[in-house]
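Hi, here's the filled form for the chain we discussed.

Project: internal
Contact: R.S.
Residues: 201
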Amino acid sequence: MKKYGQARDSGAAGPLSWEHEALLVERAVQGDKKAIGELYGLHVEAIYRYAYSRVGDKTVAEDLTAQVFVGMLQGLPTYQPRGKRFLCWLYRIACARTADYWRQQQRRREVLLDESWPTSQARPGELLEAEADWMTAINLLAQLSDDQQDVLILRFVGEMSLIEVAETLAKSVGATKALQHRALASLSRLLEKQRDDGCGE
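And the returned structure, exactly as it came back:
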């Protein structure tokens, strides 16, 4: 049976099986506060990292994370897993809340690139995994389209499969794969431009 582990999105002591999560969700749907608390603890870090990656502000990310779990509480009574990970549903709520936030801002924030880049050999996937360069990654990601940001964050930060990302974004697998390809190509161009600008100093 497939399992997924704690990586960045779980505070649990070990991997959580689909069966265990299904039982937690079933209890949570019935109003079990302990099960709801466990689901929160398992997934709050993943949702926070998604929100922070999208907005680049800790306070706003914390607020959006709270909104996601309020949405979870509101939606639990009618939640239907349909064979999908619970985290996929939470990411869909997070995507909607983040889109609402940016609409309320009326315009995208201006993002200044860092003037230096630690290595000319870095690849997009490595960039998204490197904690030391997290702010640089966020600055670069913020220059991509919303869809491109979502697909890269869900794939490389949320560590979701293409199928799971497609389900979360309500797109076909083919469209998601093409979107990921375009996003990585755009991110590579931004990295190249940043390196060139740095060499020109």
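Let me know if anything looks off before we file it.
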